[in-house]
Amino acid sequence: MSTSSTSTTHIAAVVRKELTEFRRNRFILATMAVLPVLFLISPTASVLASKAAADSQKLDHQVGLSLMFLMLIPLLLPATVAANSVVGEREQGTLEPVLTTPIRREELLIGKAVANLIPAVVLSYLVLGVFLAVVGIGANPVIATAISHSPQLLAEVFYIPLLAGWAVWVGIAVSTKANDTRVAQQLSTLASLPPVAVIALMSFNVIKPTLATALAFGGLLLVIDFAAYLVVAKLFDRERLITGTKPSTGH
Question: Confidence band (pLDDT; 50, 70, 90) for 64?
Answer without folding.
Answer: confident
